[in-house]
Design brief:
Length: about 325
Amino acid sequence: MNVTVIIPCFNCAQFLPRALYSVFNQSHEVKEIILVNNNSTDNTQIILEQWKLKYPDKIILLNEEMKGASQARNKGLRQAKSEWIQFLDADDELHIDKIKVQIESFNTSNKNADLIIGGCILISKSHKYERPLEKNDLWKGLIFSQLGITSANLYKKEKLIEIGGWNSETSSSQEYELTFRLLKNNAIGVICQQPLTYIHVQDNSIHKSKNEERFIEIMENNINLRLKIRDYFIQQNVFAEKIKLHVSKYIFTYLMNTTGKFPAFKHNSKIGKYVNKKVNAINLTLPFSFLMNTYLIFLRKKIKNRLFKHSIK
């Protein structure tokens, strides 16, 4: 199986060599590597040209003037010659056997698959942890953000082209919006549980945005995608109640965990008011037992955080 690696590059000079070393060290040989410079203003272009000189037959350099990783990925996708695509963010890296193990998973589970979903390890300055991965139900995994992440998966090029590639209008949750369209288009996915991708969480991650407007925009994108999934199943009249419950649980806990605000409590902050307004507008249907259990978890977390802050004073 031939694989093309596509890396969008925006001001990534300090990280890019690490990503590229992880690609060239793959135990399954990569057919080609497409590097797409996306309006970088640092030394990224110099690094790209140096690697191109070193591997002229393997590396393809492209430029994309339209801003955004989705635009850069689409440009690389259109140029790719392989059957399978490995997207890789420039600040992330692959385990040496990442592609090999996922291809073996494809060969042993379902050779009609269009998407190989993989686990990953998230690494920040303070800690490292494995991102949860749904093992059985792809739609449940999609709703709860447990179907891998951009760099953790392998995609069949033909299926990506069929759905029009990445949506450049989406400013966050791009990989889950893409996966939603793949599953709607009858894409077959297989799960490869090993966490073989290392995601380096940067301090300027959009999920850590201190801009309230941007923070709310990110939450809106995330929530609206789940509402689209819910509406899709209602229209199909298949598993509608089950999906509605999954979506309600996800949105409630997502708002709570992301903002640190428990929905339905009185909040004076802009984000707190947004949480309550959103919950009321969506009209979530949740069992009382779920609400009570969620509140107890929330309360324990609050107490734990206060004790920790008190201990370091």
